[in-house]
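Final report, Chapter 2: Outcomes

The project's central promise was a pipeline that accepts a single protein chain and returns its three-dimensional structure in a standardized token representation, suitable for archiving and comparison. That pipeline is now operational. To close this chapter, we reproduce one record exactly as it appears in the project archive, with the input sequence first and the structure output second.
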Amino acid sequence: MIIVRDLSSIHQIGNTEIRELLQQRIDDLGGEAFDVAYFLIVESRDSLESLSAQMGFPVLCNRFTGIRYDQAGFTPSFEFVEEFPNCFDVVFVLSDDGAGVELFIPKAEGIDPDLLAMCQTYAVRSDA
């Protein structure tokens, strides 16, 4: 996975569309996104365990109840999932001050199928 905590890290993103989308998100936040957020770009070799370890909670589960997305009683702990032609954008607000993490999950071979299924279930289509 690619972790972006500053502007100099953006060059690591090989997927042009995701890199441009991330740059737009940073611009939308006034170019100061790193005061309140960091970004993770999931890659095909990433396991759910490594993603969950980076985030500090199981990404397929509600952060507070532990209920998995495909079980009865699940409610998302993410703010939204936005679908783009080549990826999903998932936003988690982690604290009352608005700090959070934004995941970019490519629609690509090798991405965990449960992660893609959860995104597809809750996604709203982007107008972009």
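Archive annotation: The chain has a mean pLDDT of 90.
This record, like all others produced under the grant, will remain available to the consortium after the project formally closes.
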